[in-house]
Design a protein that fits this description.
The structure is a single chain. This protein is α+β, with helices and mostly antiparallel strands. Helix content is about 25%, strand content about 40%. The chain has four helices and seven strands, in the order ααβββαββαββ. The chain has helices at about 5-10, 10-20, 65-75, 105-115, and strands spanning about 30-35, 45-55, 55-60, 75-80, 90-100, 125-140, 145-155. It has a six-stranded antiparallel β-barrel with strand order 1-2-3-6-5-4, surrounded by four helices. The two termini are about 20 Å apart.
Length: about 160
């Protein structure tokens, strides 16, 4: 598992494209769909705000949210960026990995100050560590030859 900055060093182009898709409206705060694993093993999907700070990717989650319980019990997640309003290339960005609960108050305060985001005191902070990433566009869109074109990190072993 890698922090966002470690992932960015290994795959700068994919990380830059992904960050652009995640941060469509504000400099350090973005939106995505977060998939977690329910207690019964079924998937759960939620829209979520995310925060980039000091080379790391974080989410603040209310403690009574089912997704908070999911991540505390089983930190595995998948994250899909919201599609852009104008998406002529059919762009998509996806990461998966493990969410780690961060309890350090100084880290929490620094993130809130840096991003000027509104966070309730009881919200739980998680760092999203990255295991896999995929950036996709549709090549030859609108033609009979339309097909997805993927950039994947780490590169698949053939």
């Amino acid at each position: 598992m890698k922090s966002w900055s470690e992932f960015s060093l290994e795959a700068p182009e994919i990380a830059d494209l992904g960050k652009q898709m995640l941060l469509q409206t504000r400099a350090n705060v973005g939106f995505a769909f977060l998939a977690t694993i329910r207690k019964d093993g079924a998937p759960r999907l939620h829209p979520i705000s995310l925060v980039f700070s000091s080379g790391h990717l974080f989410v603040f989650i209310p403690p009574d949210s089912p997704k908070c319980d999911d991540l505390k019990r089983d930190g595995r997640y998948a994250l899909q960026a919201f599609p852009p309003a104008v998406n002529e290339q059919g762009r998509e960005f996806y990461i998966c990995g493990v969410a780690v609960c961060i309890s350090d108050l100084s880290t929490r305060q620094a993130i809130i100050a840096e991003t000027t985001t509104n966070v309730e005191e009881q919200e739980v902070l998680f760092e999203l560590l990255v295991d896999k990433a995929m950036y996709t566009i549709l090549a030859d869109r609108g033609t009979p030859n339309e097909h997805p074109w993927h950039r994947i990190w780490p590169a698949p072993v053939h």
